[in-house]
Amino acid sequence: MAQIYPSILSADFARLADEAKAVDGADWLHVDVMDNHFVPNLTLGVPIVESLARATDTPLDCHLMIEDPDRWAPQYVEAGAGSVTFHVEAAAAPVRLAREIRAKGARASMALEPATPIEPFEDLLPELDMLLIMTVEPGFGGQAFLDIMLPKIRRTRELISKHGLELWLQVDGGVSESTIERCAEAGADVFVAGSAVYGAADPADAVRSLRARADSATASAAWACGH
């Protein structure tokens, strides 16, 4: 079954606890952490993650768009994140970092910017619990989905299947009712959605609708046959 991760980057920051409750039924909450260095935007940090972890029973998926994740990522596990994603472009020692995240009790995930190919990192995949393919340039919400990422999603799914891994494949950026089926057909099974959820009249219903569309597309996708 497809997993839907509402992105609180699109939520009302003054009402984060309420906004977390508004998406009951979501699999995880996606928390974008930006430092105004790795990307040109500044968002949430450790204290907010700690507060959110206390305010919701939905597990937190922290996406670190920051410099020096080797230093900072473990602190997000300690703050209550159940999954921590670092960018391979920013990590000095991605294998060591993934192992440290796992050792602290969280799922380890690695993100790739649109221009970063998956192939050089094939040997790292067994060290991960999830891989994030960015389908927009990281840094801001509300961007248009980049269709040119679909072949990359397919290639990544092929590598996951080749090695027989139980690795979740996440997409983030421009995911909506008009794009989620293409992502699912290409091989994604975890979907970050910001404005498509929090911009809806009923965010919880938007989560259900997105999941249904993704599940339908997955059911007829070549990669999922016999999966």
From TrEMBL:
It catalyses: D-ribulose 5-phosphate = D-xylulose 5-phosphate. Its cofactor is Zn(2+); a divalent metal cation; Co(2+); Mn(2+). Binds 1 divalent metal cation per subunit. The keyword Phosphoprotein does not apply. CDD domains: RPE (cd00429). One of its GO terms (molecular function) is D-ribulose-phosphate 3-epimerase activity. A divalent metal cation binds at H30, D32, H63, D172. Gene3D superfamilies: Aldolase class I. Its EC number is 5.1.3.1. Pfam families: Ribul_P_3_epim (PF00834). Keywords: Carbohydrate metabolism, Isomerase, Metal-binding. Pathway: Carbohydrate degradation. It comes from the Bacteria. Substrate binds at S7, H63, G139, F140, G141, G142, D172, G173, G174, G194, S195. Catalyzes the reversible epimerization of D-ribulose 5-phosphate to D-xylulose 5-phosphate. Belongs to the ribulose-phosphate 3-epimerase family. This is Ribulose-phosphate 3-epimerase. It comes from Streptomyces roseicoloratus. The lineage of its organism: Bacteria, Bacillati, Actinomycetota, Actinomycetes, Kitasatosporales.
